[in-house]
Each structure stands twice: as C-alpha cells, then as structure tokens.
Amino acid sequence: MERIQVSKEWMQKYEEIKSLMTSPVNYAQCFGMKEIQGKEIFVLDMGEVTFPSGEILVRDPLVWLNRNEKPYLQSVPIGKFKVNTLVAKIEEDHYRYVLSRVKFTEEIPVIYYEALKGDENLDSFEEDSIFGFPVDAGLATIVDVETKNAYCDFVDNWYKKNSGKNIYDDFFLQLFLKKMQWKIHFIREREEIG
Questions:
Q1: Structurally, how many domains does the chain consist of?
Q2: pLDDT tens digits, 24-36
Q3: Which Pfam families match (predicted)?
C-alpha cells in the first residue's frame, strides 16, 4: 500500500504518548445535542462514502489531495458508510461546519485517538497539541486511497481539457449547488470562500 514507512523510533515515541492523544470530547454525543456553547446545531446527512481498500485520508481536495499524500496508519473497514456533518448556526444566515463523522457502526465509540500518518514530529507533542490536516480552500474530503488516485486522474484530465479554467469555479461549484439545493443556506457566498 501507499503508507509511509514508519521508523522504529517514531513508533516507540508514539506508544509512549498515545494515551495523551485521546480526545476529552465524546464526539458521538455531540451529534445528539441541539445546542453547543449556546449555538444551535444541525446534523446534515452528507450521503455515503465508499472505502474499497480501507486505507483512508482526510484532506482539502482542491489543494492537498494529490498523489503524494499518504493514508493514516489506522485502516478502516472496507465498504460503504454514512457521513454526517454537524453544523452550527453562528448567527442568522451564518453557519459553520463543526465536525464530520463516518458512521462505521451503530456502537458508540468509547475513545478517540488522533489519526496520524507516521511522519509527524512527536518530539514537541504536548497534551493539548493536535495535528489535523491543512485546509486552504475551506473544503475537506474523506477518501480511500483508491478514490484519491482516481480523483487525481480526473483532475489531471480536466485541466488538460480546460486549460486556463479553475476546477472549483468552473466545475465543482455548480455540482455543489445542484447536489446541495435543499441545504443552500449552509453554503457561503463565493466571495467569502476566496
């Protein structure tokens, strides 16, 4: 598979600090709440995601989903799974995505560990540190490595046929608006997206 070759030293350090990388928040409970920190919240059904290999990654698809990106160390079950996103109403007509989940099972998770690739610098890790993933375009996607590779092929071919165009403005935006018609108030205006 495409995973990073993890050094023995990295794994040893990871095992030493793994217990510090647990979340104090039970994210599953958040999806049952009506409000968080005084903000009304909604759960959006985002459809399903397919994981043909179980090797996954989460990235900003317009900037950081490229052939060189490696999956997380932890694999997931192979198959199709529901995806939900928690949205907070910040103020009238102003919404923010708070978190998303892939529902692998109906069981309630008892612990959450941070997803890692195996190349993170663990030497300076502190209890409140997080690694996360970079976001430049304000988007995030959860994909299997097979889907990532197919997406990269699609992007390469699209730009060959659409020289001088922008894949977000000239392709994805129209798809988003069409697919999300009933959720349109959760999509920010183009000038806010940047």
A1: 1
A2: 888 999 999 999 9
A3: DUF4241 (PF14025)
| Residue 116 within a domain | yes
Query: Is residue 103 in a domain?
Result: yes
Do the domain assignments include residue 142?
yes
In angstroms, the Cα distances linking 73 to 3, 114, 116 are: 7, 11, 6
Q: Write down the pTM of the prediction.
A: 0.83
- What is the residue type of 135? V
Question: Which domain does 81 fall in, by range?
Answer: 8-193
Spatial distance between the Cα atoms of 76 and 103, rounded to a whole number of angstroms: 11
pLDDT score recorded for residue 165 = 95
In a domain, 1, yes or no: no
Structure-block tokens of residue 23: 């979340």
DSSP notation for 74-108: S---SEEEEEEEEEEEEETTEEEEEEEEEE--SSP
Handedness of CA 180, 181, 182, 185 (dihedral sign): positive
pLDDT digits (tens, 9 = 90+) for 154-180: 999 999 999 999 999 999 888 877 766
Rounded Cα gap, residues 144 and 41, in angstroms: 28
Kindly report the CA angle at 112 between 109 and 113, in degrees rounded to 5? Answer: 145
Is the pLDDT confidence value at 184 over 80?
Answer: no
Q: Distance (Å, rounded) from C-alpha 92 to C-alpha 95?
A: 8
Output the CA torsion 22→26→27→33 (10° steps).
-160
